[in-house]
Amino acid sequence: MINKQWLAFVEIKQMLRYLQTNSTLCYYFKLQNLMLVAKHNHFPNLRFGLLLVIACSLGLTTPVSAQYRTRVIEEGEQPPTDNMVPAATPAPDAPFVLPTPESIPAPPPSDPNNLRSLSQSNNLLSLQGGQRLMEDASSAIGSQNYSLAVQKLQEARQVYNQLSGLYGQLADTFSGIDNRISETQRTNALNTAEMRDRATYQLALVHRAQNRPELAVPLLIQIIKSQNPTTDLGKKAFQQLYELGFVDSPFPRPRAVAP
Fold it and tell me: What is the pLDDT of residues 75-124, one digit of tens each?
């Protein structure tokens, strides 16, 4: 599932670059159509990301952005509903037609199951989703299935890295407008970045167990650069580099013993 979602995210990014013309109204109209496509094809994460793009691009103080900001908090976190029919696979030569708002049934607003789906454990773009991937990786390591562990840890890194980036965008956007929201999102960005680096450290250890230091070394250096050499995780990463022979001296240096 994650491969399909990440490929879809790449496709959305390419479409956004293509659609960004001089006509602002045309650009945001097409963005709204892309949101309908994401909703129609059961991609709540894509829909949430597009809502975030629109809310931040329009400027948080505009009336239109206020509507999208509310949807980021409420509607943007709704999961696909049971009464949404998946899009049928078109014939090879059939033109792609964007669905209209009338063709997509709206979820009942009173249904509690449709609220805040990103906080549910079955959603990938969430802390719970990343934690579930980390637990799967630990199970794979326990059974010495290192190839599966590498896959799960890479997926966890992607989830945490994207969460950190999204939180950081919100923090920057709200800076000077609502400092409470900005600081909260900044803290979320830092916390998820640390989770990403912990997943990266586990991935480096798995590569060491596979006797593939050429893959472990770049990951360990990424951790040191991200976390700072003086943090616990930074020290552990540097110790791994020392044990691998990539650096000549340990850090921190051992204190000299007085005679």
Answer: 444 444 434 344 444 445 455 455 555 555 555 555 555 555 555 556 77
Q: What is the pLDDT of residues 111-137, one digit of tens each?
A: 555 555 555 556 778 889 999 999 999
- Give CA–CA dist 258/188, Å, rounded: 45
Nearest to 54 by CA among 66, 62, 65: 65
7-12 long-range contacts (CB < 8 A, ≥24 apart) are 8/38, 8/43, 8/46, 9/45, 9/46, 9/49, 12/38, 12/46, 12/49, 12/50
Cα dihedral: 207, 213, 218, 219 (round 10): 20
Count of positions (residues) in the chain: 259
Token reading at 253: 């240096």
Two tokens, residue 104: 């997509």
Give the count of alpha carbons within 13 A of 173, CB side only.
19
Whether residue 56 contacts residue 68, with contact meaning beta carbons closer than 8 Å, is answered with: no
**202-212 exposure pattern, b = at least 16 Cβ within 10 A, e = fewer:** bbbbbbbeeee
